[in-house]
Amino acid sequence: MDIRHTPLRWSGDTYPSTDPAGIYNALADLDQPCFIVVTPDGIGAVSGGSATVEADGLPLLAAAQPLPPQRLGSGAFLAAHQVAQPYMAGAMAGGIASADMVIALAREGFLASYGAAGLLPETIEKALGRFANEIAGLPYAVNLIHSPSEDRLEREAVELFLRHGVRCVEASAFMDLTPHVVRYRLAGLRRDPDGRVVAENRLIAKISRSETAERFMRPAPATLVSSLLEQGLITHDQAALAHHVPLADDITVEADSGGHTDRRPLPALLPTILRLRDSVQREHRYAVPIRVGAGGGLGTPVAVAATFAMGAAYVVTGSVNQSCLESGASTVSKAMLAEAGIADCEMAPAADMFEMGVDLQVLKKGTLFPMRAKKLYQIYQAYDGLESIPAPDRAKLEQQVFRRPLEDVWQECVGYFTRRDPEQLQRAAGNPKRRMALVFRWYLGMSSRWAVTGDKDRAMDYQIWCGPAMGSFNDWVTGSYLKNPSNRRVADVAHHLMLGAAFHTRLTQLRSAGVQIPATAGDYRPVPLETPAHGSPAGMR
Known about the structure:
The protein is an alpha/beta fold. The protein contains 20 helices and 18 strands. It has helices spanning 20-28, 75-81, 99-106, 121-134, 151-163, 179-186, 210-217, 222-230, 236-241, 266-284, 301-309, 319-322, 331-338, 369-382, 391-401, 406-420, 423-428, 432-453, 469-477, 490-512, and strands at 7-10, 34-39, 42-47, 51-53, 58-64, 87-89, 111-114, 141-145, 168-172, 189-191, 197-199, 202-207, 250-254, 259-260, 291-295, 315-317, 345-349, 359-363. Helix 6 (179-186) packs across helix 8 (222-230), helix 7 (210-217) packs parallel to helix 10 and helix 16 packs across helix 18. The radius of gyration is 26 Å and the shape is globular. The chain starts with 6 loop residues before the first strand and ends in a 29-residue tail after the last helix.
C-alpha cells in the first residue's frame, strides 16, 4: 500500500523540524523510525514520537525504519564471531595492528586481527597471553601471512596458534594453499553431539584474485589432507571430515588497500567473488554458506555504506586504524598518515616477496622509501651479486641508503638468520644473487621497523603501508575532533564509520522514494560519542 501523502499528526515535542540541523538529527536517530513530511514551511523530518492519521495532519512523503548499524551486513557474521557489528579491523604486520588495538575493539564488540606477521614468536606469545587475561571470551583474530621464502615462520606461527587455542585466524597474502594454513583449519574439526561437523578454528581469508578465493572456498585438497595425516599433524577423524567444510568461513575481498594489494576496484571485484561464492555453494551445499566481506579503500561512511549495498557481509578497515592512538605505529608515522591525501600513495617492492617482484602500497609523502626500494630492485635485476655492482653505484648505496658497508649489513643478516631461520643462510651459501637479496631485504625490513619505532635519524626511509582510504578519511574528518591524531581512538573510528554508513543507507532509502534531503543535512559528521557504562556508544549527539 502506498502511504505517501497520508496525513499524520504528531504529539508532544516531536513536531517535524524543517531546518537542516533538525532534519539531520532526525535522520541520525537511527534507533527510531524517521518520517519525512510536508509542512507549511517546507520539507520536514521527525523521528520516533507518537503519530496518528488525522485528516488535518501533515502529508507524509516517505518513512524509513529504524536502522542501527548492526542491521547492516550479515547477522550470520555477528553470530559466528560473537561481535556486535559486521566490522573488522584487519591486520597490519609488525604489530602495527597492536594488542592494544585488538583489546580496545574487542571490548566494544568489534573483531580485530593482531598484526603478528614479522614478529618474533615470544612477542606474539606475549600478546596472546594478554588476550587470554584481558579479553577472555571476547572476539579477536590473529594474522597468518604467507611466507613463500620463509616456510619455517609460517609453520611456527601455526604451531603457536594451535598451542594457545587461537580460534580465529586471518590469512593474508596467500597466492596458493600451504600445508600450514590447511593444518590450522583441519585441526579444529569435530562432530557435535548431534553429528554436525563443527569447525572450531575459524579462518578468514583475505584475497584479491578469483583463483585464490576459489581455493579457500573449496574443501582442503585431498593431497594436503593425506600428507598432514601421514605426518600425524591431524587425526583420522579430522581427515575424514575435511571434505564437509570449506577451507575458510569468511572471504575478505581486498581491493585498493595499503600493503599487499593488486589495487583492483571494489565495484568490479566484489560482485565477481560473490558470484563465485554462489557457484561453489551450489556445488558443495555447505551447511553454513561462506560469508564474503570487503576491504580496501574504506575510509568514509559513504564508502562503507556502498560496500554493504553491493552485498558485503562485513567490512574491513586497515589504513585508517594505523593513525589511531592504539596503533603500534610511531607518533611521527601517525602524524604523517594524518596529513596524507588520496594521491599520496605509491607501489614499492615488498620485503617478504622481494625476489618475486611483488609490490605493496606505501605512503610516498614525506619519505624517500618508495624511490630507494625501487632502485634496489632495479639493481637486483641487473646484477648477479653484490660484487658485480659497479663501484659508483655501490658507493651510493652504502652512503645514502644503507649508511654502512654492504659487508657489514651481510654480517648483521648472518646474525639475524642464525637465530631465526638458518635455512635462509644455507640457501644463500654459494649463491651471490640470493645473498644480495637478503642484504637488500634488510633495508626493506628495517625501513618498516624505523617507522614503527620512530627513529628520527631514519625518517626519510620510513616504509608506511597506506592506501587511498587514509586520504579520504582525512578529508572526511577535517573540521571534526578526529582531525587530530591524538583524538583518534580506534573504537571511535569504527563506531563513526558504522553509524555513518547506517545514516547514509537511510538517506539512500529516502532518496529512492523521491525525497530530496538538503545537502547540509545529508552528510554524516563525527562528534564525540557518549559511552555508557556497558561500553556501547549512546549514539550521535
